[in-house]
Design brief:
This protein is of the alpha+beta class. It contains three helices and six strands, in the order E-E-E-E-H-E-H-E-H. A hairpin with a 6-residue loop joins strand 1 and strand 2. The longest helix is centred in the middle third of the chain and has 8 residues. The chain starts with 19 loop residues before the first strand and ends with a helix. The relative contact order is 0.16.
Amino acid sequence: MAVLLDGDESEPPDRFPAGPLYVPVRPGPNGYGYVVRLFRSPLGVRTTVGFTCERRLTATLGPGQRWIRLAEPALRAMTAPLGITTVTVDPLFAAPPPALAPALAPVLVPVLVPVPAPAPVTTPASASTVALLTT
């Protein structure tokens, strides 16, 4: 039997609770209260996000982001009924808001000028052609 020394474990140790987190929120329905914001991980999995300090929240989500303080177990309990089991603490990246469209440069569009079609070439109709056209 192999003896595992520190650092030789195949799985990471259990994470300890992060304590009270700064949790991003948005206004609730009809302006009542607040709702915890949900995010997606880079792989598309829904997750909640918490920050260990207000400075990190502001650096990631901007100074206008509202927040509340919640303990990690409370945050998990709030989102578990939605099937969200992941809490991401202190994410380092958030996608920037889309940039405003730059002023459009003038675009040259080719203009088609109608050219008169050549006059159709007429040939005298034979009697059989006229009979087909009239029946």
